[in-house]
Amino acid sequence: MIRRAALLLLLVLAGCSGKDDELRPYAVVRRADVWQAVITDSDRGRLSRLAEAWEQARADLAEAGADISSLGALADDRAVADPAFPAAGTYQCRSVQLGWRQGTPRTPPPLQAGTWAPGKLVADGILLRFDPAPGPQQYLGTLYPDVDRLIFLGTLRLAGDMGRLRYGEDAQRDQLGVLQAVAPGQWRIALPWPRWTARLVLIEIRAA
Asked: Are residues 80 and 163 in the same domain?
C-alpha cells in the first residue's frame, strides 16, 4: 500500500511537470526512499544479492589467479566511514568487470579494466544523473539518496543506439547499483549481476 501511494504521488507530479526529463518528478520528493518506489521487483532481488556478487566475483578471480591488488581500495567491498558523496561536476571514470557471467564460457579474462574517460554528474534537486563519455557500453542513470549510499537505477546504452531509454522501459537494458566512497575523491558504483557480462561491474569515479 505504501509503495502504491508513493508511485501514485510520483505519477501525479510527473503529470504536473510537463517536462520530458525523468528526474524532475522525483526531485521535489525529498525523501531517501524515493528509489524504493522506482525500482522494479526483479532488480530489487538483484540488489539484495550484492554481497553474493562480490563473493562469486572474487572466487572467479582466485580460480583464474588474477591479481586485483592494482585496483587498491576499489576492490574492497567495505565502505568508507562518514563518506562524502560526489557533487555535480566533471570526473574521470572507467568501468572494471569482475568475474564471469553465469552460464557463459569462461574464456575471457575475469578481470577487465576499461580506459579512463570524462564523465559528468548532473544535479537535479536532491538527485544526480550519471552521464559517462560515449563508448561501446554506457551505463546511464540516476543516483538516489539512501542513508550512507546512493542507489543507481539506469540503463545500458550501446554504441550506435539512438536516444536514451528510461529505467524500466526495457528489462534487458535496466541496470542497478550502489555508489559508495572508497577513498577521498574516489567513488565506485557496484553493479551486481549486470546484464550480459561479468558477475560484477565497478564504475570507478575520481575527481578530475
From this structure: yes
| Same domain as 86, residue 68 | yes
pLDDT tens column, 133-175: 887 889 999 999 988 889 999 999 887 777 788 999 999 899 9
Report the C-alpha dihedral over residues 63, 69, 72, 78, rounded to 10 degrees.
40
As a whole number of angstroms, the distance between CA 174 and CA 68 comes to 28
Cell numbers found for residue 148: 550512507
Cα 126 to Cα 9, 87, 150, 193, distances in angstroms = 17, 11, 11, 27
Residue numbers of the domain that contains 34: 2-38
Number of domains present in the structure of the chain? 2
Query: Looking at the structure, do residues 34 and 46 belong to the same domain, yes or no?
Result: no
Amino acid, single-letter form, for residue 31: R
What does the DSSP 8-state code read for residue 199?
S
Q: Give the CA angle between residues 105, 73, 60 to the nearest 5°.
A: 20
Q: Give per-residue pLDDT as tens, 71-110.
A: 888 988 876 666 688 999 999 999 999 998 876 667 788 9
